[in-house]
Fold:
Amino acid sequence: MKLLRPERYVLKFNARAFHVRSSTGDKELSHKVQARGPKLYVVASRGRPVYVGITNQPIRSRLRLGWPAKIRHGYHGYAWRHHLKQAPLFVWFHPRRRGKPAMRDLETVEAEVAYLVRHRGQWPAFQTEIHFHPSQAIHRRAAKSVLAHVRHAR
Structure:
């Protein structure tokens, strides 16, 4: 499994609202980011992932879930929205367009990325949840590629 090219965006936010734009300054998000389909996303700070997540939703919809107006059922939303004001957002796509196997692959890569960050010091600063599945070499290679891309895209 090779993740499809990452797209880079800039998130500007406070605890109550966010704006997401392409790294070139355009307001438009790509069709792939706006569509349903398996995605891995990384929020970074200083070249390090602070949060790794997956979604099958359009990315703006997924981010909106992390900005709740009220705490619901113990969910407080993204912790990093209280500590940062801006962050790069990277989005990778699974080569399959649908299905549980694609989401399982991405959950496995998500955990492997978090593990690689932990291996170099601490867990991603604002990671709140990780789903662990047995990984294969393809998942570990994908995780190394994700981490290398985030580190070099400063």
The domain at 4-152 is CATH 3.40.1440 (GIY-YIG endonuclease). Strands lie at 4-13, 18-22, 39-45, 48-55, 86-93. The two ends are 26 Å apart (CA to CA). The chain has four helices and five strands.
